[in-house]
Amino acid sequence: MLLQDKVVIISGIGPGLGRSLALRCAAAGADVVLAARTPSRLEEVAEEVAALGRRAVAVRTDITDEASCRRLIDTALAECGRLDGLVNNAFSIPPLADLADTDPDGIRASIETNVLAALRLTTLAAPALAEHGGSVVMVNSTVLRHSRRTFGAYKMSKAALLALAQSLATELGPSGVRVNTIAPGYIWADNLKFYFKHLAKERGVPTRQVYEETAADIDLRRLPEPDEIADTAVFLLSPLARAVTGQCLDVNCGEFHH
C-alpha cells in the first residue's frame, strides 16, 4: 500500500491509461480525484475505484481553462482535506504531418493542452502539495526518443513538457515537492489494438502477427500494458521515490534506451 491514505489528482481520465492510473493508485491505498471533460468516463472509473474500497471524487474539468482547474483543486481539498499527488495525464495529439505542412494553429492547440495546461494545474496544486511533501508525475511519450517524420509537432510539445517538468523540479524542490516524468512507448490498450487490427486486415494477416512483428525489436519482446505504465507512476508518487526528482523514466519494455 505505497499510497496508503494519500490523495492523488489524475487528469485525462479515459478508458486507457487514465483508468489504469486511477485504479492502480486506488489499489495502492490512495483516494483519487478524477478530472476529464466527459462525465460518463468519470462516473465509470469512479465506480471502479469505489469497488476497490477507496474514495473517488469526479470533477468535470477543462484543463485549458484556469477557472475549471481552480475548481478542481478546490474540490479536491474540500472533499479530501489534503493533496499528496498530481498526475498530468491529459494530452492532445497535433496533426501528424511534416512540420512544413502542419498548421501552426494545430501546434498551438497541442502545446496549450500538453504543456501550458500541465503548468497551470501544477502551479495551482503546488501550495497544497507542499504541505505534505507531494509529488507530480508528467505523462510524456517515447516520441522524445526518435525523430520520425510526421511526429515533429508532437515531439515539440512533449519536449517542452519534459523541459517544464525539469524546471518545476528545480523551482518546487525547496518546498519538498518532487516533479518527475514517465515516457511510455506503445501501450497495449484499446486504441492500439484497434489500429493493429486495422493493419492486419489491410495485409490479410492475423492481428497477432502485427503484434509480434512490432515487438520483435523490443528487448522484452512484448508491448507494455496500461497497468504497467500506471505502476511506474505509483512508484514515483510513493515514498520509495522520495529522493527522485527531475527525472524521466522510460516505460517501453526496452524499445529505446536512455
Task: Kindly summarize this structure in a few lines.
With 258 residues, this protein is an alpha/beta fold.
Question: What would your notes on this structure say?
Answer:
47% of the residues lie in helices and 14% in strands. It is an alpha/beta fold and 258 residues long. It folds into 2 domains: 7-187 and 225-251, NAD(P)-binding Rossmann-like Domain (Rossmann fold), CATH 3.40.50.720; 188-223, no CATH class. It is globular, with a radius of gyration of 18 Å.
Number of domains: 2
Binned, the helix content reads 40-55%
CATH fold-level assignment of the largest domain: Rossmann fold
Sheet with the most strands: spatial strand order? 3-2-1-4-5-6-7
- Rounded average pLDDT: 96
Order of helices and strands: EHEHEHEHEHEHHHE
- Biggest beta-sheet profile: 7 strands, parallel
> What is the second-level CATH architecture of the largest domain?
3-Layer(aba) Sandwich
CATH class of the largest domain: Alpha Beta
Low-confidence stretches: none
Helix/strand class: alpha/beta
The count of DSSP E runs of length 2 or more, i.e. the number of strands, is 7
Percent of sequence in beta strands: 5-15%
Gap from first CA to last CA: 29 Å
CATH superfamily label of the largest domain? NAD(P)-binding Rossmann-like Domain
Protein name: SDR family oxidoreductase
InterPro entries: KR_dom, NAD(P)-bd_dom_sf, SDR_fam
Domain Ketoreductase: 6-191
Element layout with pairings:
Blueprint: E1 7-11, H1 17-27, E2 31-36, H2 39-51, E3 56-60, H3 66-80, E4 85-88, H4 104-130, E5 135-139, H5 152-172, E6 178-184, H6 190-203, H7 207-215, H8 226-237, E7 248-251
Parallel strand pairs: 1-2, 1-4, 2-3, 4-5, 5-6, 6-7
Helix pairs in contact: 1-8, 3-4, 4-5, 6-7
